[in-house]
């Protein structure tokens, strides 16, 4: 049982990251998005939030945080304790509750130094942020803190962590991958090594 996962940014036309609301024993958001009224979308599904988890702190993933914090008085969990948006630190290898499962935090820099993926071995669900995308896409490395060799290492580490049981890959931009998601991670491994 993984709880129910809603992408609150699915129909948004403005530039934003995906925002995943995961309901269950621990009702939480993965990323906050930007440029749309996410609070009203949360209200359509739940009355309260337990936590917000950040895959990383690029503006398109965090600009809605002040409105969410104000509406729900909720803490934000992320990798970088020096970032203004992070209340509670999540380190590589930590287990965090999300929905009805425990997720392992995987530190996966390369797109941004504070990047995390969250993976539940029990359900096979992974929130991959901007590390990998559909059809072998992977996060940009030309932004501040980005590095191609580092992102290759991170994609490899993600592949090794999930290869035994990946059932769904929820990414920071674009559609979630629910049919053979490991193939998309493998494509990203190959694509990141080209050029």
Automatic annotation (TrEMBL):
Domain Metallo-beta-lactamase: 16-173
Molecular function in Gene Ontology: hydrolase activity; metal ion binding
Xref: Gene3D superfamilies: Ribonuclease Z/Hydroxyacylglutathione hydrolase-like (3.60.15.10)
Residues making up the signal peptide according to the UniProt record: none
Domain of life according to the entry: Archaea
Cofactor names: Zn(2+)
Record protein name field: Glyoxylase, beta-lactamase superfamily II
Keywords, sorted A to Z: Hydrolase, Metal-binding, Zinc
Organism: Halobellus clavatus
